[in-house]
Amino acid sequence: MRTLCTLLAVVALTALGCGGDGDLPDKPQIQPDRVELNFGADFSNAVYVDSAPGDTVMLQNKGNEDLLISKVEITGPDAQFFTVAGQPAGNVESTKTTFVAVVYRPTAAGKHKASLVITSNAENSPTLTINMGPSAVWRFTSTGTVTDTATPAKALSGIKVSCVKPPEGAEASWAGWNLTTGADGKFSQQHSWTCQELLFEDPAGTYANATAMANTAAAVRLSAIHKVGGKVVDAADHTTPLPNIKVSCLKPAGAPVSWVGWNVTTVADGTFSKSSVWPCGGLYAEDATNTYRAKTVDSWGENVTIEMAK
């Protein structure tokens, strides 16, 4: 009877296994819940440039002995786009879990490959590699063509196109951009921030600046700047300058309803100058003191001489 009791005690102690799980190996085993992180791309969701989606991998210890994690790092050709945002526990007991959080911050479009490498004392995989290969795309694309208002078939190269006005409620990190049209007058910019308004500038000063709503800038026409200038003199001697003479741009035949005229006053040396997107049908000079008779000239340009008689 005493022998039977002794055998039963031995069997009981063996079954207890000193606190271990008889179904698990003694050595620590690392078991990830996934072998790849795609940051939402695996659900066909776009990852935008300058966004910062996160993803997490769960690690479980499938052995009886403690799992000791000694290092977590990111390697690979595009490692600069990934950051470990949450470190796992250094000591993971049997059957327990821990997590590693990674943030993906792409600053360029394309497929980005890197590896999350976890070093531990795991018997099955002392160096565990989790692949990462999400793709990033630009959120917005602004494209269009800049041409001459008078000659729409004439493409304008070298025009500076700038995103200068953010939309209402834009984040503090909003940033504009600028580029230059090519030989074909076209421009194209991929960017992360939407623009409320685009500004078009001609560095050469040949065309007037223009603005357009970003979503309607596919075809932009710039108007050439017409420079008008000259001098008003006394008709008696053809040389005496006449200051304080009002010079007006006359409406040309066939001008559109939107045509806008202008007027300037001659300075002390009798000269005047004006730049406008609208051409003139001639110039009209008048003296507010009525000392000189009004004078109309059909010509206009940068070197016009108007002679006025008393």
Strand-helix topology:
Blueprint (H helix, E strand, L loop, with lengths): L1 H15 L13 E3 L3 E2 L9 E2 L5 E8 L5 E9 L6 E5 L4 E2 L4 E8 L5 E2 L2 E7 L6 E6 L2 E3 L2 E9 L11 E6 L11 E4 L5 E6 L5 E5 L8 E4 L5 E4 L3 E9 L10 E6 L12 E3 L5 E6 L5 E6 L7 E3 L6 E5 L2
Structural overview:
The chain is mainly beta and 310 residues long. 5% of the residues lie in helices and 43% in strands. The chain contains one helix and 26 strands. The strands form seven sheets. It has a five-stranded mixed β-sheet with strand order 2-11-10-5-7, with no helix packed on it. The protein has a four-stranded antiparallel β-sheet with strand order 1-4-8-6, with no helix packed on it. The radius of gyration is 39 Å and the shape is rod-shaped. 22% of the residues are buried.
Short recap of the structure:
Helix content is 5%, strand content 43%. The chain is mainly beta and 310 residues long. It folds into three domains: 23-137, Immunoglobulin-like, CATH 2.60.40; 140-222, Immunoglobulin-like; 226-308, Carboxypeptidase-like, regulatory domain (Immunoglobulin-like), CATH 2.60.40.
Mean pLDDT: 88
- CATH topology name of the largest domain: Immunoglobulin-like
What is the CA-based Rg, rounded?
Answer: 39 Å
How many domain regions?
3
The CATH class of the largest domain: Mainly Beta
Helicity level, as a percent range?
under 10%
Distance linking N and C termini: 149 Å
Low-confidence stretches: 1-19
- Tell me the number of helical segments per DSSP (H or I, 4 or more residues long): 1
Largest sheet: 5 strands, mixed
CATH architecture of the largest domain: Sandwich
The CATH homologous superfamily of the largest domain is called Immunoglobulins
Biggest sheet strand order reads: 2-11-10-5-7
